[in-house]
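Archive transcription. Copying these from loose printouts into the bound notebook so they stop getting lost. Printout 1 of 2:
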Amino acid sequence: MRCRFLAIITLSYTPLIYAQQTLYKSEQGELSAGVQIQTATLLEGNNRSGGAMKQNLSDVYGELTVEPNIKAIINLPHDNQLYAGYSFIYSAMLGNDPSGITQNNVLMPLEKTDFTQIGYYPYYKDAGLTEEKYIGWRSGKLLESWGENAIDLSAGAQDYKLGTGLLLANGSDDGGYKGSYWIGSRTAFTNTLIAKINTHDLKLEGFHLETRPRNPATKKNYDGVNLEYNYNDIVTIGLSYINENNKGHRRGIHEIGSTIDLGYASLNNDVYNMRVNFLPLPDTLPNLSISGEYVNQQNKITLQPTLDSAVSQRHIAQGGYAEIGYKFADVSWQPTLSYRYTRLGNGFDSMAYGFKTWGTWFQGEINGEFILDNSNLITQVGRLILTPTERVTFNLIYLNYEFVNFNLFKL
């Protein structure tokens, strides 16, 4: 069944990026620092398409994020290196955005406490939190026959993206008491362990990732392996296995407003992922590309009441997309046309998908960011990109939504 959403949105967005400045550099290593400042003001008419929550939300709201960072490199023999980085994000929001996570003058269960406390969210919400804090080692020319930097080992709080980011890209929640949901500057996973081997046309990765949600009781772990093969930059194939679990973060079951646990819930999902990206006619039409991805999830949730036996719920969910695109490289403004069909089935776990370019993978301005989730959803996207200069890009995007099961969605 199809559903239409109508809202009028005016957006002002300003990113101020100050490039990394080298503070120290020698044969022994390098130290650099930088800062990124982002602001956004949004004006919206017919908030949430006129839903009942509209009166408690802001027609005008503003966001701000400031992210300073510092990075260091220590050079070792054979050009291998130790590296480290640290960044901190201050984020703020004035008003209440269409997510409805916070509402004006409404007594609400507070997400930060796993809804055990009831209270009011302030009109101005802000938070200052560490974003990245990592250390790593890369092999340089130590294994020269494998290629430069064939091995890369890292740990800490850092970014990680699998493929296009359909499953893994965004390790942290914004919005709510943190502010700045729309800008979405927080993306790093925490307590990560990432091992990468890149040798010639093969890439092998193993990883442990932990999320940083607004509600700490919903924290998840992702343990997985990823294998990719690239053939002459014509075909890239990726295969991944991910175990999604909440080991060490088992969630208590309780009534809203109560701190008394009535049991607990544990999560243990097995996820299989296959990706492909290729140029079907590399000699005659080198700017024609086709890509696709398939996901099979075998999801298992175990509910263990305090005074009763455990109950396990098993569900197999599937999802994926297919996309075709063509770039008219020899035409003024280099227009690029693309079409993408995505189906994410009923019960599909959207995991930690992320925003990297317009249309991937928050599907739609406002609707795709605040209202819809990557589950129980069929989306068709038509897109035209125009690039008059290197620093200016225009996007014209058409989205059509259809729910796999409309009865599961409530506006």
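Printout 2 of 2:
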Amino acid sequence: MSAVTSEYVELDDDIGIRVIHSKPQQGKHTFVFLNSIETTADTWEDRIAPALRKQQYGTLSFDYRCQGKTECGPDAVLESEEMVSDIVRVLEAQQPHRPVMCGLSIGGLFGARAIGKGAQAEAIVLINTLRGENTHSAGDKTLEASWDFPWESLAVPTLVFTGSHDPLSGTQKAVEDILKRIPDMNLLEYPGDGNSLHSEFPDEFVADLISYAKLLGLIGATK
């Protein structure tokens, strides 16, 4: 298992992003975790990231601006565009090997937007991210962000985790319509509302991430 490093990526005088990065072994993927507004890097570092590292996968987790242990000055702007820009810049600075973004709730939306702005990713995992138009979770009301996104433009393989009874996603038909718009999509449905499936089903969650990474490896080998 590779060493785990914790450092700060200095974006400007006001922002220093706390980053926890471990490189993969044997050319495997790196899972890049993108938080919801209510979670931090510690959410992933509790069980999920260590379990992946034991299987020789890389992990990269970090706190957004003004979140967790990230340094945040009084003049820092907390808006969705800045969050997306921070993701792009952290990835540029850290250069994770074969990155697979894993975004929880609005973190998945941020990840999709970051890819659209040039962030490198071999794939993206959306964890309880999809919403009907003009809907958002209670935990994300503190940040002004439109959930509208041109999902048909997502140009990387996509794995969608969702709950069988998610009260936050808007109408089921709206979510089904979004799923149809994603070009290269696999869907996994977990019991319950899906809001904390990574903590309710950590072993299954890790196993599904690894299975998807192996699938990506097979796809890459045939290209």
